[in-house]
Amino acid sequence: LVAAVACEELDFPPGFQFGAASAAYQVEGGWNASDKAENIWDRFVHDKPHFVADLANGDVACDSYHLWRRDIEMAAELGLHFYRFSIAWSRLLPNGFADKISEDGLNYYNNVIDGLLEKGIQPMVTLYHWDLPQSLQDLGGWTNPLIVDWFGDYARVVFSHFADRVKIWITINEPLSFCDGTYSYGTNAPGIYDPEVGTYLCNKNVLLAHAKAYRIYDKEFREMYQGELTLANHLMWYEPFTPEDEELTETARQYMVGRYSHAVYSKEGGWPPAVEQVVAELSKAKGYSESTLPAFTDEEIEFIRGTFDYYAVNHYTSQLTRTVDDGSPGLNVEYEIHPDWKPTQSSWFYVYPEGIRKQILWLRERYGDMKFIITENGYSSSIGLQDTERIEYYKEYLKQLLLGIKEDGLNITGYTAWTLMDNFEWTDGYNSRFGLYEVDFSSPERTRTPKASAEFYKNLIRHNSLSIYDEL
Ligand code: PNW
């Protein structure tokens, strides 16, 4: 009896959905196939190859542009309930604008969607996973407020062609990664370093563009198709180094998470007050005439507020936050790693399973009870099929989610493993591998082979439970 109770505790709720994810530039290849136009990652890896480990690029990547049948077969082998992938804007709309729709682009995504559905796998589609058409970048990209309309037009094309079969959507993936990555650090395509102004222009336009797509869906498609939309945030959990660091840790959370959540999910909308204050202080100290965080009008606040049907959680890791009280303006914190947290193959990534549960509890406390879907979580290793550390990672993080569901009553309805197969890990090239399947990047066939973690994930899904692993 004791064993039976223990088992049940490790069961996921009935109907819990398991999936795996990928993103267009990381897997598709076919960078100039047919009429596909250049995007900012194509341009970045070709013009600034030294930004990427081993001068690698995604020209071919996993060649999913040609090997999509095999991808679907793998999704079916795992027994996935859904597969998350993204649409390459420049493959569908070669001009970036809606004036010309690529036939081959349409065919490609129709094939993937129909192929998945034939196997009973739901497509979950991301509209934007960092691969802006270069033509739009040339016009200022995410810093040009007109992108709100360009993105809206693109979204409408996507919805009109695919929303009859796709019911779950992510508008934009991880603004933190690409706005801050591009403008605050200069390491993400297109690599424009402009931390004081560029980052915040990108932030504001991303939030408005997301809302635009959501409003278009609401007005023109929702009644017919009944889908669900939101944006996906990258959520690094911040834990105070000592209790005295709690106050600034909360400001750090607002800066890293609230900056992309408050406008959409909070009751008041707009920027988090703590972020407004930090950026205003900094701007003043630097001699700007006003805050470089562009203000929202009341209309804009209303336009963005509430544009979600669930919260999409991309979570991998955590950091400790320590106050550096040097009296300078801005957010005076240092980020550190707890000595007990194990490193991974990615420099930014240490293992702290409790972080995922704490992060979601924080979100519920700030923004209210809502449905959460884990849209990315996974482990970074080097090459190898016996990936026991990845299995360990999945077990530990999934156990924390179960605790969140059972003890805290969190409404978590789905989980997405990042990633289906090893792929182009942005500036880490092919060195950091997150896949359930290994990909042989030296063979023209890009042969895919299941790792031990694929077997683990398959059994987990089949039993809807972690109880099959007695060592837990
Ligand atoms: C996410 N960090 O990126 C992306 O959505 C994926 O495309 C990517 O492959 C995956 O996670 C693994 O990296 C991240 O520095 C990029 O904390 C950077 C960070 C986290 C996630």
Give a verbal description of the structure.
Keywords: Glycoprotein, Glycosidase, Hydrolase, Signal. It comes from Manduca sexta. Homodimer. It is a single chain. The longest helix is centred in the middle third of the chain and has 23 residues, at 198-220. This protein has 17 helices and 15 strands. By secondary structure, the protein is α/β, with parallel strands linked by helices. The radius of gyration is 21 Å and the shape is globular. 42% of the residues lie in helices and 15% in strands. The strands form four sheets. The chain has an eight-stranded parallel barrel with strand order 1-2-3-4-5-7-12-13, surrounded by five helices. Helix 15 (354-367) runs parallel beside helix 16 (388-406). Bound molecules: 4-nitrophenyl beta-D-glucopyranoside. 4-nitrophenyl beta-D-glucopyranoside (PNW) binds at residues 23, 26, 173-174, 177, 234, 236, 314, 316, 348, 376, 418, 425, 434.
Concise account of the structure shown:
With about 475 residues, the chain is α/β, with parallel strands linked by helices. About 40% of the residues lie in helices and about 15% in strands. A hairpin with a 6-residue loop joins strand 10 (about 340-345) and strand 11.
